[in-house]
C-alpha cells in the first residue's frame, strides 16, 4: 500500500477518495469545452444542452472531490507543508469558481449561453485544470501515493 493512501483520511478501502473522483470533473469540463465548440460551429441547440448537462455533472462531482481533498488536506500536516498542495488547492478553487460562473452563463437562452463567454470560460477551466494536473502528478509522487509494487495486481 502506498504511503499517502494509508494516511488519507478520506479513502475507500485503501484508495484515497480524492484521487479516485478527481478525473470525473476534469472529463466533464473537457466534454463541456468540446460540446461548446461543436455548438459554436453548428448552432444546434442540443449541443448547448449537452454542455449544461456535462457542466452540472462536473460541478456535482467536484463538490465531493473538494470535500475529500479538504479532509485529506486538513488531516495531514505533511501534506499542508507542501507548496504543491497549496497550488493544487488554489488552482482547483479558481477553476471551480469559474465553472460555477460558467454554469450561470450556460443557463441563458440561445446563442449567448455559449458564445462567447461560455466557450471562453470552458476553455479557461480546462487550461487551469491541465496546469493543476501537471502539478498534481508531482504532488502525488512526492506525497508517496504513486503506484508501488504492492499496488500492482
Task: Name the descriptors.
disordered N terminus, 3% strand, mainly alpha, 153 residues
What does this structure look like?
With 153 residues, this protein is mainly α. It has one domain. The chain has seven helices and two strands; from the N terminus they run αββαααααα. It has helices spanning 3-7, 17-21, 23-42, 45-75, 77-80, 83-106, 117-143, and strands spanning 11-12, 15-16. A two-stranded antiparallel sheet has the order 1-2. β1 (11-12) and β2 form a beta hairpin. It is elongated, with a radius of gyration of 17 Å. It starts with a helix and ends in a 10-residue tail after the last helix. The model is unreliable at 1-6 and 143-153 (pLDDT under 50).
Amino acid at each position: 500500500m502506498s504511503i499517502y493512501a494509508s494516511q488519507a483520511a478520506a479513502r475507500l478501502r485503501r484508495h484515497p477518495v480524492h484521487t479516485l473522483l478527481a478525473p470525473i470533473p476534469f472529463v466533464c469540463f473537457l466534454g463541456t469545452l468540446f460540446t461548446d465548440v461543436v455548438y459554436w460551429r453548428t448552432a444546434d441547440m442540443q449541443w448547448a444542452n449537452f454542455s449544461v448537462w456535462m457542466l452540472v455533472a462536473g460541478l456535482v462531482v467536484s463538490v465531493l472531490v473538494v470535500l475529500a481533498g479538504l479532509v485529506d488536506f486538513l488531516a495531514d500536516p505533511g501534506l499542508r507543508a507542501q507548496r504543491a498542495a497549496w497550488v493544487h488547492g488554489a488552482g482547483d478553487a479558481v477553476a471551480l469558481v469559474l465553472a460555477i460562473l460558467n454554469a450561470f452563463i450556460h443557463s441563458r437562452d440561445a446563442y449567448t449561453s455559449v458564445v462567447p463567454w461560455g466557450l471562453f470560460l470552458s476553455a479557461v477551466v480546462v487550461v487551469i485544470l491541465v496546469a493543476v494536473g501537471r502539478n498534481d502528478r508531482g504532488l502525488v509522487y512526492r506525497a508517496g501515493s504513486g503506484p508501488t509494487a504492492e499496488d500492482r495486481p
